[in-house]
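Hi V.,

Quick status before I head out on leave. The structure for the redesign project is tokenized and pasted below; the design run finished overnight.
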């Protein structure tokens, strides 16, 4: 069956015929689910920068311990392409909702287990090994979360507001980061001995509460009408990944390269946190609060960037934000290393909260609209997770590149800026889809 004939099956399901409450409900479900997933994911990143070198890698010198902790953070991203293939396959075979429930339980259980894991003093080298395995499970889960939530929301939305509603998946990510940081702020203020013995475990154990709320919200969400139509007519791809790589490999490659923009996020959330506190004496609460302010600002700005993308297109907003990040990385580091609290807050709010928020709000719709429904979950999952590999190892690469002295951050800024420019160039080759009907998304052209 050709792509055109498959896509035509979607025609009876005009997005505007979807009940009016379903797009809002789908956005809420995606928001809450992403909040849980990335609460769990971000508390690991924060702990990897501040806690784990002393708790799980205490048998080596401090510099090596930091690199090993950051390596464990990056290893979670190695599992994500594998998870993308597996979860993308089932998301396109049995439906978005079932897989999204599975990712919730997998992420929540892995995070809870980290909170209960004995440290290196108690069980020796088994501690970092088990920690790394649990991080791999987190990565498997995260691989399917955003792509499934994006597909779910996009396919419940009207043609005129797909970017707006789909952007709430990433707003959930911001909310998860805020929640994780707010939990870590009082914990990080504990005396050192209490922090390293039991205090760091609190954020991980609290994930059980977030998991319960997210599961209750998500389990009642119906499957998308687009997927149900394909399923009812027995047009589900038997091997979605094969169909994807056969017919959509240029789009998969494009998404991989566009996803390099995520290097900005892990650089600010993980590397800059450890760099400013260890090399420039910036207080841990100051950097953590800067992260909160940046993410709170993004919660406000991202819906407006998405509304703009529904009006003028995905590409202008995405490319403009990506290139803006490339330019602002340099003043960001100058301000963060200044030691001035107001300057640090301003840097986080402008880079993370305003400029990075543009591509962050747009990519859920921008990437998903490159694919037809029968391979959409797989396409966005595999493309983003391969691209996010670079983001996962950005803290480790940055720690290796950083030089001595007050301007040691310059190689790091150059590295991330180059990733941004490459991402923008890839986005420029994409088709503009904001005026394309959902039935026609991903159809072969020409």
């Amino acid at each position: 069956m050709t792509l055109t004939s498959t896509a035509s099956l979607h025609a009876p399901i005009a997005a505007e015929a979807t009940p009016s409450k379903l797009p809002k409900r789908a956005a809420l479900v995606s928001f809450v689910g992403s909040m849980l997933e990335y609460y769990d994911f971000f508390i690991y990143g924060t702990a990897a920068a501040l806690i784990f070198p002393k708790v799980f890698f205490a048998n080596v010198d401090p510099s090596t311990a930091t690199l090993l902790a950051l390596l464990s953070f990056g290893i979670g991203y190695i599992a994500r392409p594998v998870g993308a293939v597996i979860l993308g396959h089932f998301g396109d075979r049995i439906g978005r909702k079932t897989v999204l429930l599975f990712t919730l339980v997998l992420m929540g259980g892995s995070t809870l287990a980290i909170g209960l894991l004995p440290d290196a003093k108690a069980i020796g080298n088994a501690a970092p090994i088990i920690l790394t395995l649990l991080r791999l499970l987190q990565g498997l889960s995260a691989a399917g979360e955003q792509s499934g939530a994006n597909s779910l929301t996009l396919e419940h939305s009207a043609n005129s507001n797909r970017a707006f509603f789909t952007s709430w998946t990433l707003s959930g990510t911001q909310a998860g980061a805020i929640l994780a940081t707010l939990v870590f702020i009082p914990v990080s203020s504990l005396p050192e001995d209490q922090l390293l013995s039991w205090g760091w475990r609190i954020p991980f154990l609290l994930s059980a509460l977030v998991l319960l709320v997210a599961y209750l919200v998500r389990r009642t969400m119906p499957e998308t009408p687009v997927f149900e139509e394909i399923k009812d007519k027995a047009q589900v791809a038997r091997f979605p990944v094969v169909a994807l790589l056969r017919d959509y490999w240029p789009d998969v490659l494009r998404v991989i390269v566009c996803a390099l923009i995520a290097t900005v996020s892990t650089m600010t959330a993980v590397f800059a946190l450890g760099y400013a506190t260890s090399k420039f004496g910036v207080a841990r609460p100051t950097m953590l609060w800067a992260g909160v302010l940046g993410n709170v600002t993004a919660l406000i700005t991202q819906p407006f960037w998405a509304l703009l993308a529904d009006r003028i297109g995905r590409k202008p907003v995405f490319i403009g934000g990506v290139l803006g990040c490339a330019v602002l990385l340099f003043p960001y580091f100058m301000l963060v290393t200044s030691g001035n609290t107001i300057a640090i807050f301003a840097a986080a709010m402008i880079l993370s909260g305003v400029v990075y928020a543009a591509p962050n709000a747009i990519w859920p719709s921008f990437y998903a609209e490159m694919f037809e429904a029968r391979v959409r979950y797989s396409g966005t999952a595999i493309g983003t997770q391969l691209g996010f590999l670079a983001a996962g190892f950005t803290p480790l690469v940055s720690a290796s590149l950083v030089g001595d002295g007050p301007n040691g951050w310059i190689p790091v800024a150059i590295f991330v800026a180059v990733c941004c420019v490459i991402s923008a160039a890839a986005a420029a080759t994409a088709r503009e889809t904001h005026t394309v009907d959902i039935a026609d998304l991903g159809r072969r052209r020409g």
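Above is the designed sequence. Confidence is low (pLDDT under 50) at residues 1-18.

G. will cover questions while I'm gone.

Best,
W.
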